[in-house]
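seq:
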Amino acid sequence: MIATSPNGWPVSPNPGDLDVVPLSVGVGKTLVPFSTGVRSGKVHQVLAYVANALHARVQRASAPLGCGGYSFRPNANDPSVWSNHA
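struct:
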């Protein structure tokens, strides 16, 4: 049985098992990497769109970004379950 997070996504200590890829916000000299990667495909596409829209229209991202997607760890409020970031 594959372990899953509360939102139903599979979890693994190896980001490669989950198809986690890098994500950066901005362009050119303003490019800021997320501290961790995010799952490829639609997850990456949607988060990249939202993060870049915030960067362009609300407030520019600056390093360190201080947020990310993948982080293999238990839930902070209930260590008996995996975090949605796992």
